[in-house]
Amino acid sequence: MANLQVEICGVKFKNPVIAASGTFGFGREYNLLYDISVLGGVSTKGTTIEPRPGNPVPRIAEGSSVILNSVGLQNPGVEHFIKEDLPFLKSKGVVIIANVAGKTLEDYGNICARLNGIADMIELNISCPNVHAGGMALGIKPQNIYEVTKLAKANLTKTPLIVKLSPNVESIPSNARAAEEGGADCISLINTFTGMVIDIERRKPILANNTGGVSGAGIKPIALRMVYEAAHAVKIPVIGMGGITCAEDAIEFMMAGARAVQVGTANFTNGNSMPEIISGMDRWLNNHGIKDVNQIVDVLTLN
Ligand code: SIN
Fold it and tell me: Whose CA is nearest to atom 7 of ligand 1?
């Protein structure tokens, strides 16, 4: 067996495969399919200070090789998360990444303060395209990214901070650097692309919110390019995601510079995709005589 362990910001992951926020709830349902303690980590459903009911339905639609979601950050609120969901995830021995969101800058500061020292890492969600206040609005311009990151970091004395970037922007390198300058310990990307699907009989968008976030296998080449750009714009570690469905996809992201990967939409098409990706990575490394997964990080030679 190859070594699959990775360390990011002093946090040890048993392997580099992490469940992406919003595709895995808080892990309980997938734990009915397999023991989720095999995972490197879980990034939780985006959590806010107050419970949120989310957007009206329909809020999921399909496209070719992609899905669109307009969930609107439905979640039970941070106190419920701490009392009911965190103990379950802790019992599984996975790295717990609390994905957090808010309507205002102040919300982001407050939720970081509440989870400081409680979650293993915080992932700042400034990239949700489905809410009218906060979310992606704070994640487009470098100055906003810098400010929200700085505030979050000021409230996180004990817990490393990941900033999750939006792809719906002008410049990934500028935004990655803004997060780094604001004090981020790590960057994750990409969140979803804003998109639309239309019911041509009704001549209306399928999603009740009209638009939604596009994810899934179809976005992988764009995500990979953005992860490469971010990893080469900053010194802090990068976690890559966007359309990963198999071990070879995960290896591509690591070769592009990601120190770990998140798997999202693939969990919907194949509930066992993450354990399969972990064993597939091990197999690939063994077949290529590579003893340690860290040896494939950032090894790309451009043509
Ligand atoms: C949502 O809840 O609308 C999706 C979350 C996200 O894209 O960050």
Answer: 128
* Regions in the chain scoring below 70 on pLDDT: none
What's residue 211's pLDDT? 98
Q: What is the 8-class DSSP label of residue 56?
A: P
Which protein residue has the closest C-alpha to ligand 1 atom 6? 128
Distance 137 CA to ligand 1 centre (A): 13
Cis peptide before 190 (omega within 30 of 0): yes
DSSP labels for 67-129?
A: EEE-----B--HHHIIIIIHHHHHHTT-EEEEEE--SSHHHHHHHHHHHTTTSSEEEEE---T
- Residue 132's pLDDT is 84
**Cα–chain center distance at 34:** 21
- CA-wise closest residue to 98 among 86, 84, 83, 110: 86
Look at the block and give the residue holding tokens 């990239």.
127
Residue 251 and residue 247: Cα distance in Å, rounded?
A: 6
Instruction: Map out the domains of the chain as residue ranges.
Output: 6-54+73-196+216-296
Residues in the chain: 303
Tokens 């459903």 correspond to: 45
Q: How far is the CA of 131 from the centre of ligand 1 (A)?
A: 8
- Identify the pLDDT of residue 260: 99
* Separation of alpha carbons 99 and 113, rounded Å: 14
**Residue type at 56 in one-letter notation:** P
**Which position has the token pair 């500061």?**
109
Residue 112 annotated in active site: no
Q: Which CATH number fits domain 6-54+73-196+216-296: 3.20.20.70, 3.50.80.10, 3.60.160.10, 3.30.1360.60?
A: 3.20.20.70
